[in-house]
Write a structure and sequence with these properties.
heterodimer; A: about 350 residues; mainly alpha; MetI-like fold; 2 domains; two-stranded antiparallel sheet; 15 helices; about 70% helix; B: about 375 residues; alpha/beta; D-Maltodextrin-Binding Protein, domain 2; 6-stranded mixed beta sheet; 3-stranded parallel beta sheet; 17 helices; about 45% helix
């Protein structure tokens, strides 16, 4: 029996029973998985079974042997990582070494046995050579970084004041404002991007209002331009910037600001020397959440962008669907993965260092 | 208690799956804006088979999904040149003519033409056919090129001087190299079916000069954009442009859209209904195809989508204005300049796709 925390002098944080919580969570997860399981095609069911069954057996054995509970806690994310990242990654990697052909599946096998039963491996790095030798892919990647970078800057410039204002608002208003930030997520992302078409097109809301006001005589061409793509990305990812910034700014200790002002700092100086440096982790987290998905963005440039909008996500889609060249598409995807992971790791390490310093 | 809840959930789940099995379903994957509004309801009312209907706007999208396998579709509608190589890849099953009593309604001449893609018409039935030409906003073009300018040539979009005058009101191209490149080759006086690299480079060089005047490449958006005046010229499929014209007229915004088959010639294509080899409901698929070959159904579809069908028996139910429209049913002298596409081998495919990416992105 653990002693009642109330009976001790200082209130102690309540100790959760990790096993009970874990069991409840697992039961819920298992229920959801089972329903999803029934919807899967038989081949996939078998494959998943082969992965899950050993994991389960391992789990049972580890319980019996009394191995650390910690293993269980990381087992679920590990399993997730394995099923939804590593397996697809290897499938992609395998396809990227093949050659395209009109067949089902539309790529060549990696090995063949000839008449004498000799195994012949026909994997090649030709696709990687192809994409490295063609400036299109490099340009698409660089242009994606540019678009993502500029969008992140604008999202930060817009998001910071909003997050700051929400964090400084008194309680009832703060919750309402936060709700307003999250509210758009309740409608489909696609619908929201489509709504922008209604604003930006020739006969759209913006042109009509500007014409009515007499600011312009001829409707502005805004659709199918980079401008529309920036609008779309900044609009879509703004909440991802605001929320981490808010979470950071709301923790800001008022005493620090009071101290700064007592010592004679003007509000602008206080902001630059106290608030801004302290909110750095929020800025980095928000920027990462905007920058990384924006690099691979496909839907927004496809709907709002023009023929000049070159982005790697769209190039990838074209390679897959227009060129029907799965091997090259897979090679592009793998290269892109590494190129997206690199800045992520870098930002992560910057953040870690930041946190260590704090 | 918890066990009981789980059991109830399982029973409920089992009974819904049972129900789904009793109810026959057909999964149809067709081009967007390609069927009359009431056709699917009629089919369900008549046969009791529920239709899951999904759409695409590019043969490449369809092919990517078909080659991926287990697409789950029962009826798909690829264009002839794509169908041909997909049949070679073994992804369609032969049709069972016994389940298609309406086969006798078909136009033998058209099915004969289509048999160049599918020998003996074993795997597919022509759903609709048509041409690829130019749709334009008559007022906007006249305003920029003069009242006397006659739109009858590919030069409207391929001559950089003319195209640049239309750039501000918006030119759209199909995002489909099998449509644009052959037309460009023909405009330059070359063989539209050429796979010669030098010829193709020449076509791409020409397209590069008009590229700055283009608004976008897309294969379905131009229908609504032409109709509401967002763009004024589109290289598009005959029926789609005519649908845009009909929508503009309905909306009453004063936008008038016309379709022209350029005098240099145009692509004549056939979209054909086929059943994937791994279709989950092949019988329902046959029932669906048979239904589409019914004279009244085919006529209603043609009246709605403005594409001619291949059901000869339907002609008497087709509206006069559709049947007598030379842009829908082109007269013989226009047809003399038509070409039909052939599938490419993988190497040519990659070359052409790469060139097409260069056209679209300027890279």
């Amino acid at each position: 029996m653990s002693p009642d925390p109330q009976s001790q002098g200082a209130p102690k944080p309540r100790r959760y029973k990790p096993l009970t919580m874990l069991a409840a969570g697992l039961a819920g997860l298992a229920g959801a998985l089972f329903v999803g399981w029934l919807a899967l095609p038989p081949g996939l069911q078998a494959a998943l079974f082969l992965i899950i069954a050993p994991a389960f057996v391992y789990f049972l054995i580890s319980r019996r042997m009394g191995w650390s509970d910690r293993w269980m806690v990381i087992a679920i994310p590990l399993l997730w990582f394995f099923v939804f990242f590593l397996v697809p990654f290897f499938v992609l990697g395998r396809i990227s070494l093949a050659e395209t052909m009109i067949a089902r599946p539309p790529y060549s096998p990696l090995w063949e046995t000839d008449r004498d039963g000799n195994l012949e491996i026909i994997a090649s790095l030709e696709n990687y050579r192809f994409i490295l030798g063609d400036a299109l892919y490099l340009n698409a990647y660089l242009s994606s970084i540019k678009v993502a970078f500029i969008s992140t800057i604008f999202a930060l410039l817009l998001g910071y004041p909003i997050a700051y204002y929400i964090a400084r608002s008194p309680e009832p208003r703060r919750s309402i404002l936060l709700l307003l930030v999250i509210l758009p997520f309740w409608t489909s992302f696609l619908l929201r991007v489509y709504a922008w078409i209604g604003f930006l097109r020739r006969e759209g809301v913006i042109n009509n209002v500007l014409m009515w006001l007499g600011v312009i005589d001829e409707p502005l061409v805004m659709m199918q331009t980079d401008f529309a793509v920036y609008i779309g990305i900044v609009y879509t990812y703004l909440p991802f910037m605001i929320l981490p910034l808010y979470a950071n700014l709301v923790k800001l200790d008022d005493a620090l600001l009071e101290a700064a002002s007592d010592l004679g700092a003007r509000p602008s100086v206080t902001f630059l020397t106290v608030t801004l440096p302290l909110s750095m982790p929020g800025i980095i987290a928000g920027s990462m959440l905007v920058f990384i998905p924006a690099i691979g963005e496909y839907v927004i440039p496809a709907l709002l962008g023009g023929p000049d909008t070159l982005m790697i996500g769209r190039t990838l889609w074209d390679e897959f669907f227009s060129a029907r060249d799965w091997p090259v598409a897979s090679a592009v995807a793998i290269v892109m993965l590494f190129l997206v992971v690199a800045p992520t790791m870098w930002l992560q390490s910057v953040q870690n260092r930041q946190e260590e310093r704090d | 208690m918890r066990t009981m809840l789980t059991t109830t959930a399982l029973v409920a789940l089992a009974s819904t799956t049972g129900l789904a099995q009793a109810q026959q379903v057909v999964n149809v994957y067709n081009w967007s804006d390609y069927i009359a509004e009431e056709t699917l309801e009629q089919f369900t009312a008549e046969t009791g088979i529920t239709v899951n209907y999904d759409v695409y706007d590019s043969n490449d999208t369809l092919e990517a999904r078909m080659l991926g396998g287990s697409s789950g579709f029962d009826v798909v509608v690829p264009t002839g040149n794509y169908l041909q190589r997909q049949i070679a890849a073994g992804i369609y099953q032969p049709l069972n003519r016994e389940l298609l009593p309406n086969w006798s309604n078909l136009d033998e001449h058209l099915m004969g033409l289509a048999s160049s893609f599918d020998e003996g018409n074993e795997h597919a039935v022509v759903y609709m056919w048509g041409t690829t030409g130019i749709g334009y906003n008559t007022a906007a073009v006249a305003e920029r090129l003069g009242e006397d300018y006659v739109v009858d040539s590919w030069s409207l979009v391929f001559d950089p001087e003319i195209a640049s005058q239309l750039a501000d009101c918006g030119i759209a191209f199909l995002d489909d190299h099998t449509e644009i490149l052959p037309a460009a080759l023909r405009y330059l006086g070359l063989d539209p079916l050429s796979t010669d690299e030098a010829d193709l480079e020449q076509a791409v060089a020409m397209l590069d000069t008009i590229r700055p005047s283009l608004r976008y490449f897309h294969s379905s958006q131009y229908i609504s954009d032409l109709a509401n005046g967002e763009i004024c010229v589109a290289v598009g499929w005959s029926g789609d442009v005519l649908q845009a014209a009909a929508r503009a007229e309905e909306a009453g915004t004063g936008v008038e859209v016309a379709y022209v088959i350029p005098k240099e010639g145009a692509n004549l294509w056939f979209d054909m209904m086929a059943i994937p080899a791994d279709a989950p409901n092949p019988e329902a698929a046959h029932a669906f195809i048979n239904f589409m070959m019914d004279a009244h159904v085919a006529a209603a579809n043609t009246n709605y989508v403005a594409y001619p069908n291949a059901v000869a028996a339907s002609n008497e139910f087709i509206d006069e204005e559709v049947l007598n429209d030379p842009t829908i049913y082109p007269p013989a002298e226009t047809q003399a300049n038509f070409w039909t596409l052939r599938p490419h081998d993988s190497r040519t495919d990659r070359l052409i796709t790469r060139l097409w990416t260069r056209v679209r992105t300027g890279q």
